[in-house]
Design a protein that fits this description.
This protein has one domain: Alpha-D-Glucose-1,6-Bisphosphate, Chain A, domain 4. Helix content is 26%, strand content 44%. The chain is built from three helices and seven strands; from the N terminus they run E-H-H-E-E-E-E-E-E-H. It has a seven-stranded antiparallel β-sheet. It is globular and about 40 Å long.
Length: 126
């Protein structure tokens, strides 16, 4: 199995951090753009795509700032994270997505994030 490499993507999103964070950290919010359906049971999120569920646990969260998940089948050092950064001068809100993929999968994974975040931006009217 190929080693997974960490990468980060940054998106400027025209939204309040509070509203955006709700879309990143709740079942209802995530099911609007990230997965077809999302269920939460004891801090385990089940993300459903085309009828197939995949479980992820919250590793750490700071409300309004960041939330980090790990797929239950992944190793300890692999995760995906949503972080919000607000520019002090311009008040621009950046969504920073951190994820891991093998070298062969990185470009496809980045394109998938671009597509999903575009859906999120459309929902937010950004």
């Amino acid at each position: 199995m190929s080693e997974k490499i960490k990468y980060e993507l940054e998106y400027i999103i025209n939204s309040s951090p509070r509203v955006l964070y709700t879309r990143l950290s709740t079942a209802d919010g995530l099911s609007q753009w990230f997965a077809d359906d999302v269920n939460i049971n004891h801090k385990v999120f089940t993300f459903v795509w085309e009828g197939v569920g995949q479980d992820a646990k919250i590793l750490k969260e700071k409300a309004g700032k960041h939330i980090r998940f790990r797929w239950v089948e992944d190793t300890e050092d692999v995760y995906f994270e949503f972080k919000l950064v607000v520019d002090d001068l311009t008040s621009e809100v950046a969504l920073i997505v951190t994820d891991f993929a093998t070298e062969d999968e990185t470009e496809e994974a980045k394109a998938l994030w671009d597509s999903q975040v575009n859906t999120l931006m459309h929902i937010l009217g950004s």
